[in-house]
Amino acid sequence: xxxxxxxxxxxxxxxxxxxxxxxxxxxxxxxxxxxxxxxxxxxxxxxxxxxxxxxxxxxxxxxxxxxxxxxxxxxxxxxxxxxxxxxxxxxxxxxxxxxxxxxxxxxxxxxxxxxxxxxxxxxxxxxxxxxxxxxxxxxxxxxxxxxxxxxxxx
Length: 154
Hints:
Elements: H1 2-27, E1 33-40, E2 49-58, E3 64-71, E4 74-84, E5 90-94, E6 100-102, E7 106-110, E8 116-122, E9 131-138, E10 142-149
Antiparallel strand pairs: 1-2, 2-7, 2-8, 3-6, 3-9, 4-5, 4-8, 9-10
């Protein structure tokens, strides 16, 4: 009888360790990226570039990074930002290393005058009502496909 009780005790301990182990794995969730309010600006005639904007939120417990993008409307797509130089002149430049950190439990807003997806060498003029298909590439979360309507935002 005591051998049976010992076996039952050992099995119970093993089961408890498994439950604790599985719970611990579920609790260490990595990044959880959500994209909201994607849009692109209409381009003027003869423009060779355009821009797309959105809010990238990371609801997870681990940082992630936007490390690239692709678009169906441009030959090249880069992550850019607007910066003010030492002469107080605002200009645009690619984000260093094409890596934009999205902090855990934080968000980054891509908006006019700040970070944005630069659509370089447009294949055609972007017109209001059109949809721009984007593939965003994240360091840990992989690729995400989104649709950004072309619209005027005031």
